[in-house]
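Backbones bend. We report:
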Amino acid sequence: MKISLSKVILTMIATAAVSSARSLAGRADNGAAIPTSPISQAIISGDHLYVSGYLPLAPYTGAIVGPGDVVAQTLAVLSNIQEVVQYAGTSLNKVVKVTLYLKNISDYEAVNAAYATFFGTHRPARTAIAAADIPLGVLVEIDAIVRM
């Protein structure tokens, strides 16, 4: 069964967008790449921040970072997520759940090594999914749920 990645992301956003939610939609001042889709960078709902799936895009230019290099792309995505998390007033050590979408599941070990450099000894729950058709032809997309 093929699941549309955009439908998964939009479902996550819709689930998080309750009446008390606060959006971080397209904030150019937080240092993260701004999504080109009609979505928020993240939504604060209750005591959690729901970070949209991020692609390896350079802040301010939107250029793909590290074409063909899964480590460079993973680090770029995690840097974007870190910027959004910090802008929202929380930190990576409060990440409770991460989902990795990998174009090639064979890249899992390389992505895992890059991922470990961001989280150190903190170990959020995590799911890795092979996703053959990630937007823009990139190799990795990552979303996160973070405690405030």
Summary: The two ends are 35 Å apart (CA to CA).
